[in-house]
Amino acid sequence: MSSVSFSKVGVVGLGTMGAGIAEVLARGELPVVGIEIDAAALERGRGHLEKSTGRAVKRGRLTEDAQREILGRVTLSTDFGDLADCDLVIEAVPERLDLKRRVFAELDRVCRPDAVLATNTSSLSVTEIAVATERPTKIVGVHFFNPAPVMKLVEVIGTVLTEDGAVGRVAGLVEALGKIPVTVGDRAGFVANRLLFGYLGQAVTMLESGHATRDDIDTAMTKGGGLPMGPFTLMDLIGLDTCLGVLDAIYEESRDRRHAPSPLLRELVTAGLLGRKTGRGFYDYAGAEAAIPHQAGPVPSVAVVGDGPLPALVTDAAGDEPGAADLVVVTGDAAVPGGLKPGTIIAITGPVLERAVASDRAADVVGLRFAELDAPLAEITTTAVTADATAARAAELLAGLGLTPVRCRDRAGAIVDALRFPYLNDAAAMLGAAYADADAIDAAMKYGCGYPTGPIADLDRLGLSRAVTTLRALHTETRDPSLAPTPLLEEYATANRPLR
């Protein structure tokens, strides 16, 4: 550890996150001083450490001897004075600026003048914390992700006041601990939370507007967007109060409508419905609530009209004449055929409403979108002229083909692209502003948020022209400035060049 110039580290606050940070440091063979406010809190912190390392022993990832060595490196105390000989102190108290400032005032008093002081804030201004001390040049942010022993990403944040060496020294320590450091400037939410919570906030707005249901949005983003969990499941896991706090902090700085917390989120928090930790949030965990999947009937007869791209599950089932088919899929610029039997469902993959109205079967028409041709998701969009029973029947037929159907209104981007491309646009804006490079942005979302791929890689995979087209449609529909394609996207799409 001498190569990173820290020989002893303090951690203030031994909740789940602080105890996890202390464990990471102790696993890295550093002596650690853990500080809590009183004896009861200190015992809870000891319990967090013992429970976390005990789980690792049960799973065969640690021996009992190694566990004892790790726990033996952590000295627990309620006396801030025990931090006097630490080279680095990491604050990990709750996300309240007034509380953090009080902690830093005390650290300023007891710590050596050359000690680096770090805040583990996820969204608050590191600069506002730094200026409340007598050593603003030695204040950095060091944002671990929960659970700290498991998650690889650590965002290391410098301010305009931080001396050149401090960020590099902390980033070096993070790397020596086996983590992946991403070094960025002091912007609310940094990289991962700024990108993640724009997407999460927009998902709540989508639900609140009646565009789609909670279950359909979650299903769409896992089955069609390739994410490990949907936005409402994730917010319940994070805690809705935490989500609200992060969104408030980012919105206060950015004034971007995508970060403005929705009334629904604020209402749930006010009511004390905070997610898993209270038994109810967007989902009701006490009642073991579960989504009811769309019921699949027998494999339907399918006809395809036009030559647009379709998933193999559709094309393999196609072959019937339109007049005999249960499901007629209309692609490209093809018109809705006539002579269809009663009860046939017509699914159009392009613009829907005009062609539905121009046909003699408007009530039987839905839109059909595939965010990824190799994914099992089918997005069914309904218009003002779609009969109530039509979307349900379309879902049944598509489920019979082996697809997972979700339903929403006929709006730009349906569900997946309407949530995905604004998030990717935010990442492109971050890249264009030189706040972080492509590798750092992708690493933040992969290792901090568990995304399968990073947003810059996703943009290049999906195509910049597709991104620009979708964002223009979203902007035209909503007039939300944050949905207009960022200049970098426009530039590279016009040049037909990838971002990397």
Salient structural properties:
alpha/beta, 43% helix, N-(1-d-carboxylethyl)-l-norvaline Dehydrogenase, domain 2, eight-stranded mixed β-sheet, 19 helices, 500 residues, Rossmann fold, six-stranded mixed β-sheet
Distance between the termini: 35 Å
Strand elements, count: 14
Strand content: 5-15%
What is the mean pLDDT? Answer: 93
Number of domains: 3
Which spans of ≥5 residues are poorly predicted at pLDDT below 50? none
SS field, number of helical segments: 19
Strand order of the largest sheet: 3-2-1-4-5-6-7-8
Shape: elongated
CATH architecture level-2 label of the largest domain: Orthogonal Bundle
Structural class: alpha/beta
Q: Outline of this structure?
A:
This protein is α/β, with parallel strands linked by helices and 500 residues long. It is 43% helix and 13% strand.
What does this structure look like?
The chain has 500 residues and is α/β, with parallel strands linked by helices. It has three domains: 184 residues, Rossmann fold, CATH 3.40.50.720; 188 residues, N-(1-d-carboxylethyl)-l-norvaline Dehydrogenase, domain 2 (Orthogonal Bundle), CATH 1.10.1040; 100 residues, Rossmann fold (3-Layer(aba) Sandwich), CATH 3.40.50. Helix content is 43%, strand content 13%. The chain has 19 helices and 14 strands. The strands form two sheets. An eight-stranded mixed beta sheet has the order 3-2-1-4-5-6-7-8, sandwiched between helices. A six-stranded mixed beta sheet has the order 9-10-11-12-13-14, with helices on both faces. A hairpin with an 8-residue loop joins strand 6 and strand 7. It is elongated, with a radius of gyration of 26 Å. The two termini are 35 Å apart. The model has no long low-confidence stretch (mean pLDDT 93).
